[in-house]
Amino acid sequence: MEQASRTENGHFRNPVLPGCHPDPSICRVGADYYLVTSTFEWFPGVPIFHSRDLVHWRQLGHVLDRPSQLDLDGLAPSAGVYAPTIRHHDGVFYLITTLVDGGGNFIVTATDPAGPWSDPHWLPTTRGIDPSLFFDDDGTAWVVGTREKTQGRYPGDTEIWLRRLDGLTPVGEERIIWEAVQRRGIWSEGPHLYRIGDWYYLLTSEGGTARDHAVMIARSRDIAGPYEPDPRNPILTNRHKGREHPIACTGHADLVQTQEGEWWMVLLATRPYGGDFANLGRETFLTPVTWEDGWPVVGEVTESRRSPALTPHRPPAGPACDHFDSVRLSPVWNHLRTPREPYWSLSGGRLWLRARPETLAERVNPSLVARRQQHRDFAVHTALEFTPEGDECAGLALVQNDDFHILVVLTARGLELVRREAGTDRLLARADVPPGRVHLGVEARGQDYQARYAAPPGEWRDLGDPVDGRILSSTVAGGFTGAYVGMYASSNGGPGTNSAGFDWFEYQAL
Questions:
Q1: What DSSP element (H or E) covers 474?
Q2: Distance of alpha carbon 445 from the chain centroid
Q3: 67 Cβ partners below 8 Å, 6+ apart?
Q4: Fewer Cβ atoms within 10 A, N terminus or C terminus of the chain?
Q5: Which of 383, 404, 381, 384 is nearest to 393 (CA)?
Q6: CA 399/CA 355 separation, integer angstroms
Q7: Residues 414 and 427: beta-carbon distance below 8 Å
Q8: Model's pTM, two decimal places?
């Protein structure tokens, strides 16, 4: 289920990682590039990608793939893992991030980016979010992060702090090195430090992660400052583009220099459609950077751009259909919160989900295996075998969070289409289907999500009218994530005796 090639005639298409891949961070090791993004309440945490050309990315797996690394129990939507930073130093990969509403800031390490990664080393003396690591030429290591001021002048009044590291432990004096550039600017965040020539550069974002998002930069001869701002700040923003522009919310960036000497920036942005609604969440984009008078000049973030001066390196394309014939789930699949028991299994060429009491409407770990929605227009199909009893259900789920989702599920009453909006469930349609296998599907055209079914196979019928997909956007539902779609089973509080068998799952861009 890898994305198709994204280059044509020497140009690439943005985003380079479509779907909910926010807060990208990147590092280069020789000719290899590694990139990570935020995952919030989804498990495994922090997908890690590899590329040789900055355009085509292959997922290696996840950094936080064990319950011992990542406790997401009971966390609210859009809590969990925020803004990881990946760096490489002396043969070791380092990843630092924050478990919001959990243990705070921590570091994990690995010698192979594909893993295994270590259990977390917690940083008890730091607070705030968006930590980043910097390894200086003299061998010293530093951690930098952002937090709200203890006596802020207004909500979102933040400061950037800096401390030296001894091994993985912060030591010495803490220094406040930065705050928002704009007057009454909010959420100065996502800081990264770089040493380029004789200057230390501090890259930050501010304005919040919605349409006022922007990237700022400052520099100093001393890592502890004082830092002077670029007189042309912000160096990147789309806040002035208006609501009709196809790319919005540009910000939270990281810089990388290629082995050919070019500079590039990875960043998050959104692609609203159907009005000011971005069901795909915040995605990873790529844009070039040049330098003038000692300051970076960032190219406009566009849907198509000249490719980096690197040899194209396209990984093999994965299948659009997962037949569940492997011994483990593909890394495209995710769970809500940390699974404490194996509620799923792969056997006989099927994915089996136990109908447990937990539901999508609770802040728990339900029987849900889901992947990101990555296209505005898409279709998903699956084949389900399930004999529900009592209040059991199984089928397809389109998820934003526990209060906003859409279900196409087989129940003892028949096949049902249910919309949950602002915490209230509404039955939109019901159809009788014969016992045995039923094929389920959802086709999205913009914000119209049409549920369909076929029983017997091949005789497709609409299940109700199209559902308004805007409830799957953070504009309506709040939070920081995009929509996910996948397979779901629940006994809705009852004891549950059955398992649902999914023969295959297909996701196609339309």
A1: helix 474-477
A2: 22
A3: 338, 339, 340
A4: C
A5: 384
A6: 18
A7: no
A8: 0.96
Cα gap 271→283, rounded to integer Å? 8
Which residue in this structure is represented by tokens 């082995």? 259
- Dihedral sign for Cα 156, 209, 106, 170, please: negative
d(C-alpha 418, C-alpha 254), whole Å: 41
Distance from C-alpha of 481 to C-alpha of 282, rounded to nearest angstrom: 7
**What are the Cα distances from residue 383, in Å, to 2, 284, 354, 433?**
21, 32, 16, 14
Residue with tokens 């010698």: 111
Whether 368 and 486 have beta carbons less than 8 Å apart is answered as yes
65-82 pLDDT, tens digit per residue, is 999 999 999 999 999 999
Q: For residues 188 and 133, what is the distance between their CA atoms, to the nearest angstrom?
A: 17
pLDDT digits (tens, 9 = 90+) for 432-488: 999 999 999 999 999 999 999 999 888 999 999 999 999 999 999 999 999 999 999
Whether the CB-CB separation of 385 and 394 falls below 8 Å is answered with no
Domains parsed from the chain with CATH numbers: 7-306 (2.115.10.20), 321-509 (2.60.120.200)
496 vs 393: CA distance, rounded Å: 10
Strands 484-490 and 367-372: antiparallel
CA dist 32 and 200 (Å) reads 24
Work out whether strand 295-298 and strand 263-270 pair parallel, antiparallel, or are unpaired: unpaired
Longest CA–CA span in the chain (Å) reads 74
- State both tokens at 18: 């479509």
Per residue in 290-321, pLDDT (tens digit) is: 999 999 999 999 999 999 999 999 999 889 99
The token pair at 270 is 């959104």
Task: Give Cβ neighbours of residue 266 (< 8 Å, ≥ 6 apart).
Answer: 16, 24, 25, 26, 35, 253, 254, 256, 284, 285, 286
**CA-closest candidate to residue 336, choices 22, 49, 70:** 70
Pick the closest to residue 391 from 343, 365, 346, 425 (CA basis). 425
Q: How far is CA 105 from CA 100, 314, 443, in A?
A: 8, 35, 40
Which tokens hold the place of 292?
């003038």
Could you give the C-alpha distances from 221 to 202, 218, 225, 230, 307, in angstroms and in order? Answer: 11, 11, 7, 14, 33
- Measure the CA–CA gap between 180 and 186, rounded to whole angstroms: 7
Q: What is the DSSP track for 222-287?
A: STT-PPEEPTT--SEE-TTS-TTSS-EEEEEEEEEE-TTS-EEEEEEEE---SSS--TT-SEEEEE
Question: How distant is the alpha carbon of residue 416 from its chain centre?
Answer: 30
Active site residues: 23, 189
